[in-house]
Amino acid sequence: MSTREDAVTSSFYSEGTTNINESYNFDEEVGPNEFQLENIPVDTLDKSPIVQEPPSLLKPVILCLIISFTGFIFGWDIGTIGGIINMQIFKKSFGNKINPETSERYFDPTLSGLIIGIYNIGAGIGGLTLGKLGDYRGRKMALGIAMCIHLLGLFTELVEDYSWIQFFIGRLLTGIAIGTTAVIVPMYLCENSPLKIRGAMVVLYQLMITLGILTGNISNFICHNIYNDSEDNRAWQVPILLNVFWDSIVFIGLFFIPESAIYLGKLCFDMDGAQKSFAKMNGVAETDRLSMEFINDIKLSAEIEKEENNETPKLKFEFIFGKPKLGYRLLIGILIMTFQQLSGINYFFYYGTTIFKNVGFEDSYLTAIILSLVNFVSTFGGIYLVEQIGRRTCYLLGCLSLNIFMILFASIGNFAINEPYVGVGLIFIVCLYIFFFAITLGPVSFVLVSELFPSRVKAESIAICSFFNWIMNFLVSLVMPLILSRVGFLCGYIFSGFLTIGFIFSWQCVPETKGLTEKEIDDIYQDVKQETH
């Protein structure tokens, strides 16, 4: 940013700054040579009374929970689809192969993987395309459209055509919807959460994902035991049908949550609406000092960007070529999400059933509940940790701790699997791994990516980062069965290598964004020459 903006921002946060509306008319057209905000005397800005009240955060937290519920819907799919696709009645209804000896239908392994994985492909497409709707029609409108697409996908899955193609298309549609929400929701939470607990509120999205996984697994377990999953279609239909209820919660919630204050102020120039939204989401009055400082900052930023746009035409592909170093920041965001997937978390969820069977747990549905319960409970620690030790430190801790447990798991599993009590030890290591993932890489990756970019390119940048996350998720899930069949427990060393690279990358490249404003994060990436002028 220019030194002019630095001067404006520094004076803005000086003592006595309250309202600049009487000192500068923001409705007037300003020419490149007329914009002299840095010359406005600070003592002329205090023109309106300001009320300082202690914030009440209960209502804002509830509103953040409502918007985060889309994460629950995503987690519900993760928690149910694995069990559904292995139910005998589901194979009987949709299987593309017939066993000549038993005449039973089943899925070709490749098709089974594609039915699960197409969800990730759809999510990547949705994030890249519909995620941009948040800038054109608002965050709330984008979420409403995404939920409509999700409902369409659910009904496509439930239509009794009993064709795997029909179910495949339904999975694609629900993936597109969830990919859109995966861009919009973290962005909304970053923009509109109470400033004091912004990081914790973004982590709520990850917490709701883990809660969805846990309850989805419990749903499968209950339906598996209540209905005969060899004959009764309700065994797989009920978990999918419950999604309609979850979607309705989000639809109702959209009537109560305010539009993003950043969207209203910076993209729509609706300063009154932005002030009301900010006040509501921070638990303060519209006349509170915090609200007034926020809206004044928005006005100043809007005018500075307006002047800069008059001097320099808007850059095409600004999220790559824009300043300060937006392309470099995009690369950092992509790698943050990539290393989250290459940490091996899906490896444990895939191989966990086999490990538990070695110590007598034959019920795969119960196995999934145990792992997802550890994941959910541990995520509460992530809400605390991400605010206490910071984003960068949390990411570094995750790479280091997960690397240690991955090496232990691979070494013990490969060289001592036949020793007594080794199975119990491996289960303990798996649970420790999931615990540390849930308090570090799981939540902090979303927080870092949501805070890394300025609002003018946030939608495109988060969408691209999310796209790489979905694609890596798909690729890891697709190649994992082949790798496991070839190298078994040695697969852990591959993930250990990625975690080592991830640690070096985060040590060298990932900034600390805790408590920083958008401008302060921009300042991190200013060239040394720019900072000295």
Automatic annotation (TrEMBL):
Specify whether Membrane is a keyword of the entry.
Answer: yes
Q: How does it sit in the membrane?
A: Multi-pass membrane protein
* One cellular component term from this protein's GO annotations in UniProt: plasma membrane
This chain's protein is named: Major facilitator superfamily (MFS) profile domain-containing protein
Record NCBIfam families: SP
Stretches assigned to the Major facilitator superfamily (MFS) profile domain = 63-514
UniProt organism field: Henningerozyma blattae (strain ATCC 34711 / CBS 6284 / DSM 70876 / NBRC 10599 / NRRL Y-10934 / UCD 77-7)
Top-rank taxon, per record? Eukaryota
Entry's family note = Belongs to the major facilitator superfamily. Sugar transporter (TC 2.A.1.1) family.
UniProt xrefs under Pfam families: Sugar_tr
Subcellular location(s) of the protein = Membrane
The primary gene name is TBLA0H00240
TM spans, by residue? 61-90, 110-130, 142-159, 165-190, 202-227, 239-257, 326-350, 365-386, 393-417, 423-449, 461-484, 490-510
Molecular function per GO: carbohydrate:proton symporter activity
Q: Which Gene3D superfamilies match?
A: MFS general substrate transporter like domains (1.20.1250.20)
